[in-house]
Amino acid sequence: MYSKITDSFLDVFDGETGLYMGHSHFTLTQGSEKKLLDFLNYNKVPDTLVLLNVSLSDTSADYIPPELFQKHSRISVLNIDVVDAYSQRLVPIEIEMSYDVLVRGNLSQTPYYFESVELRNIKFLDVNCRYVQ
Fold it and tell me: What percent of the chain has pLDDT over 70?
């Protein structure tokens, strides 16, 4: 059982071409953290996830920023560190997933930072868990 997510980032690929788009750091909402923990603990796939303060770096030359409220297909490798509820140790988990992304907030109007992003139609393709000794 896992009780908390302490760190998270994504490596993002275009869902149609498979081309690398960039590396993304973000903050999970409390609801999205709970949904990811429910997936890991009970295999309950979330309907949506909301990411806040999404910052892209190491973007490729092929990167085209998503437009506000326009659906885009993505494939990502989500890396999270979760706390084991019993041992209190951090467990790194890697989740390969496909989804549709919808930018809901971009007040800064920069192509590399979004205040709010929603992931929909989530499909988990692979999950790897590695306990650290």
Answer: 97
Instruction: Give me the mean pLDDT over the 18-47 stretch.
Output: 96
Half-sphere exposure of 81 (CA within 13 A, CB side): 6
Q: Where are the domains of the chain?
A: 2-129
Q: In this structure, what token pair is assigned to residue 21?
A: 């788009």
The predicted model scores a pTM of 0.89
Q: What stretch of H or E contains 41?
A: helix 30-42
Q: Rg of the chain over CA atoms, in angstroms? A: 15
3-state helix, strand, coil split of the chain in percent (to 5) is 10, 60, 30
Give the dihedral of Cα atoms 129, 73, 115, 65; nearest 10 deg.
120
* 42 backbone dihedrals φ, ψ, rounded to 5°: -130, 5
